[in-house]
Amino acid sequence: xxxxTIRKNTWRAIYRLxxxxxxxxxxxxxxxxxxxxxxEGDVGIYLLPGEDKIHDxxxxxxxxxxxxxxxxxxxxxxxxxVYFVRCKTPPRCPRQLRPIQCRTFPxxxxxxxxxxxxxxxxxxxxxxxxPLIESQAxxxxxxxxxxxxxxxxxxxxPLIHDLVKMNSIGS
Length: 171
Ligand code: SF4
Ligand code: SF4
What we know:
Helix content is about 30%, strand content about 15%. The chain has seven helices and five strands; from the N terminus they run αααβββαββααα. The strands form two sheets. Strands 1-3-2 form a three-stranded antiparallel beta sheet, with no helix packed on it. A two-stranded antiparallel ribbon has the order 4-5. A hairpin with a 5-residue loop joins strand 4 and strand 5. The relative contact order is 0.23.
């Protein structure tokens, strides 16, 4: 597995911080039928390096697989294997165990031209439409703040830094 500099306890603290916030003050899944959870096809979630440390791979709600970074679009520094997970019963899941990708969507972190980390609406090609992105909805201040705090911490890890850098191109 590719290496992570982030400790298990830090992952726990990051999850706890994001447990307290939501993008909007209502369940946005009721608007779109939880489109981001229910997307069909070969859709799943890549865990960030080390994120698996706080997951029980035997827990039944996720299907785990291991993928080689060479076969997919990862930064050059990502040499090795990564975990890819699929939810078995979407949109139901243990909320306190949702991966980072679910917790910080619909925002994504990018580096601006000045090198500062900033959050933008996810502009990657998605197999569904997110009403929050489509309408450029005003997101909860607490969500934006907690998400920025978390990403500022995560990009201290060299591999995560490189991932955000790669995603910043053209953003
Ligand atoms: S984040 Fe977007 S796609 Fe996901 S449930 Fe909310 S509105 Fe729907
Ligand atoms: S972990 Fe939960 S929030 Fe994330 S895609 Fe699966 S069902 Fe949706």
